[in-house]
Amino acid sequence: MVFFLLMFELEKSALHSPTSMLVFQSPEKIYHYKIYNDTVLDPFHRLYAYHNLSKLNVSVMKEAAKYFVGQHDFSSFANKQRNDRVVNPVKNISRVDIIEKGPILQVEVEGSGFLYRQVRNMVHSTYNNLKMILGFKFYV
């Protein structure tokens, strides 16, 4: 009985030590979203990238992506989760990069955490809004 109490006290005190608290601090997370930016889709990318039928103006997308950086309430970009867990919608986005790798545009979003389908909805709403506002200027 004494051994059990001793182990319990050790485990309980280990949870409150400064070194064990590092386990509970989440590091920055990076989310990758891919857009296949060519008229003909490579069949090997069919399941792994969103296909756009015409080439996008990447510089305009990079300019628009800057507005996501910072701490914002992203509740309008989240889908309802399957469970009823309450999640704080305020997230900190530290970086949004759009990298061209041949016909693939890789959107990298780095932040403290993400809501359910947040980045996917951010990219699609940016794409749809720029297409609607700029019309043909959005395409190369």
TrEMBL record:
Pfam families: PseudoU_synth_1. Keywords: Isomerase, tRNA processing. SUPFAM superfamilies: Pseudouridine synthase (SSF55120). GO terms for biological process: tRNA pseudouridine synthesis. Signal peptide: none annotated. Its EC number is 5.4.99.12. Gene3D superfamilies: Pseudouridine synthase I, catalytic domain, C-terminal subdomain. One of its GO terms (molecular function) is tRNA pseudouridine(38-40) synthase activity. Residues 64-124 form the Pseudouridine synthase I TruA alpha/beta domain. InterPro entries: PsdUridine_synth_cat_dom_sf, PsdUridine_synth_TruA, PsdUridine_synth_TruA_a/b_dom, PsdUridine_synth_TruA_C. It catalyses: uridine(38/39/40) in tRNA = pseudouridine(38/39/40) in tRNA. It is an enzyme of class 5 (isomerase). It comes from the Eukaryota. The keyword Isomerase applies. Belongs to the tRNA pseudouridine synthase TruA family. This is tRNA pseudouridine synthase.
